[in-house]
Specification:
Rossmann fold; about 230 residues; two-stranded antiparallel ribbon; binds S-adenosylmethionine; 10 strands; 6 helices; 8-stranded mixed beta sheet; alpha/beta
């Protein structure tokens, strides 16, 4: 479904809510408009997830999708992206750079750029980098230097799927939202397994997810994470 209303974004305080829509994220975001009271934590799909677009088509789609996502984030919120670089045909695709270019187009400033190790440092990988970028952007909001946190996360934490965000990375992102913004709803328009949604709920925030896949929506509605044990 598409066209969610503001009423589905915030539940009664005390019991964090999770709502997951099966929809095309771009259609949903355009229909939904400004996500008042919310911040975004997301991970846009890799080229391997959208093969029909071809590499150049996917690059253009990725940047436009990031711009649209950022344009729905209100002034009181932040947009946080978890993205993994890929090695392709002897070259290297820097998704952190793609998201940063989108932020310039959306008129947002970079608040932080962290490196999250998905494999132990020193691990050689083929195809996908062993680290991910965790980038935070906002229009006017700027974080307090007194509450600055680490630039390198040595462990992404439990990942429910191969392309999922790690629980520890989501905890870091949600903590930033709680400390630096007044927003208390996390929206993930490409929610996949629902890692960001489950962590947001576990940290007391409401969560709204969108995914094209019925299978992923089902998983995202059910995922529970243990913030201490980091596993599901
Ligand atoms: C990188 S994965 C997200 C992983 C997620 N952050 C997690 O922790 O599990 C990208 C997701 O985007 C979904 N997707 C791809 N195209 C989409 C679209 N147009 N609208 C909504 N979801 C889409 C895929 O089904 C996939 O689950």
């Amino acid at each position: 479904m598409t066209g969610a209303t503001s009423a589905d974004a915030v539940g009664p305080r005390g019991v964090p809510e999770r709502i997951v829509h099966q929809a095309d994220a771009l259609t949903w975001l355009r229909a939904r408009g400004l996500l008042v009271g919310a911040s975004v934590i997301t991970s846009l799909p890799d080229v391997s997830e959208l093969p029909a677009l071809g590499f150049d088509g996917w690059r253009a789609w990725f940047e436009d999708a990031a711009v649209l996502t950022m344009s729905t984030v209100p002034r009181e919120g932040v947009a946080i992206f978890f993205q993994s670089d890929i090695k392709r045909g002897g070259g290297w695709l820097d998704k952190g750079a793609l998201v940063s270019r989108a932020a310039e187009r959306a008129g947002m400033g970079l608040l932080f750029h962290k490196i999250v190790c998905r494999k132990p440092p020193g691990t050689v990988t083929y195809g996908r980098a062993s680290y991910s970028h965790l980038l935070g952007f906002a229009t006017v909001l700027r974080p307090s230097l007194r509450r600055i946190t680490a630039d390198v996360l040595s462990d992404a934490g439990f990942m429910p799927g191969s392309k999922a965000m790690g629980v520890k990375a989501c905890v870091d992102a949600c903590r930033f939202v709680l400390q630096e913004t007044t927003t208390r709803t996390i929206v993930d328009p490409f929610c996949g397994w629902g890692t960001a949604l489950a962590v947001a709920n576990a940290m007391g925030m409401d969560a709204v997810g969108v995914d094209l896949s019925a299978r992923m929506c089902k998983r995202a509605r059910l995922l529970r994470v243990d913030l201490e044990g980091e596993r599901g």
